[in-house]
Amino acid sequence: MGGRKSPIWKAERIRALRQHLGLTQEQMAAELGTRQQTISEWETSRYEPRGASARLLTLIAERAAFPYRVEGEDSGDARSS
After folding, report:
1. What's this model's pTM, rounded to 2 decimal places?
2. What is the extent of the structural domain holding 36?
């Protein structure tokens, strides 16, 4: 199945995305269908979103034109032209 790797969602990036969207932790949690505590735990590095949560953050970032990728992160997996 391999191929494209998802970006790693670190605390600073999650917080920046939320602020880019103009949302509180509670509002973002409601949008993602999770708890405010989960957003807080992501933003304090207690946990990192994985699986469906990480993919959902990536989709939201793409739709919001949020620069979520870090130089060299996908090691050439993503093709852009």
Report:
1. 0.77
2. 11-63
